[in-house]
Fold this protein.
Amino acid sequence: MRRTAELGLLLAMALILSYVESLIPISFGIPGIKLGLPNLIVLLLLYDGAGNSSSHAEEPFGKRSMKIFKKGERDALLVNGMRIILSGFLFSNLYTILYALAGAVFSFFAMSAGRRAKKFSIVGVSVLGGVFHNVGQLLVAMAVVETLAIAYYAPFLIAAGTVTGALLGVVGMVLLPYLQRLSQ
């Protein structure tokens, strides 16, 4: 029961960050560039920052739920998927959900692989997430408009993903010890 409540609170925090991000009137001149504030929650879940210790015997969705992923990965995937769907219906539209899901899938697998490789710091894993989120969205955009011509956005999106990923990684690095202490 406790873990389900923790995940619910983290989902609420991610939704609040989505809403805050939707209110920020920053235009970078390139479509699709955002700060990625809700990805901070995903990053923290991947790093067990939300009480993901093995002392929690309860599995929120049963022991068979997504066995191929570690517990932190399952929680991150679950919270991020729910956040995208809910924030899409609350703050945007179905196209936004499609782009966000594509970005989230690419981002999740890149961050998960980076975390498992143990060759990246939390900042490096966050940068991987930022870059691959933009790559996933760019691939969907190319499929939707049926042209490869928009690939010229790639360097700008990769640069933006690197900067925002690094910033969120630093924030995550600062917050992680506090969240781990709270969950004990």
About this structure: The chain has a mean pLDDT of 85.
